[in-house]
Amino acid sequence: MTVEVPQYCLRAYALFYSKFGSREEFKQSFLDWIVSPSMRKKIFSLLLKSGWIKKASRSTYKCVPPSKAISELTRFRVPDLIKKADRKYAFTGLSAVEVWSDYAYVQRGIEKSPYFVRVLKKDLDWWQSFFNKHNIPNYVNKGSNIGEYVILIRAEQVGFVEKHGLKVDSLKKTMKYAKSNDIFLYAYNYMREKYGASAT
Fold it and tell me: What is the pLDDT of residue 71?
């Protein structure tokens, strides 16, 4: 899985790819005369960890093809990533509608992929650090970005149920939200038919 890297790493990747392509192996020593040893180690470490290059042997590397690296940048990561979090959360609003409707309503595309997540107010800094560590743009209450990002909704309490391995608002709360907007009518009717009128 590829994630974004700083500009200096992207320049190094461009240099490696233009010189070696994705088939030829190269060593860290290729950068010896260009950058300091500590910077060289940092560049290789970040490119390797971020998925732009891969190990070919104990001391050599290969570039991941640009088409693969770029397409991986738009892959959805939040649902799998958030399962590793050890704090309370609940997908809420549009994200809860998405989960409860078994993705009959989908709000995302590679161009714009927001996730609405309710978190405890006291855990806000932890969540921001968690998503920052994984290069996922995140905002409090509102915001927008290209690709995948998270909107954190602060709350004093976070109630949730589990659905598809994710923590999400209750069905009743989600259906009430879906019923409030005609845009979600298809998803609302899907949930009503699947779970019955008593769910509302």
Answer: 72
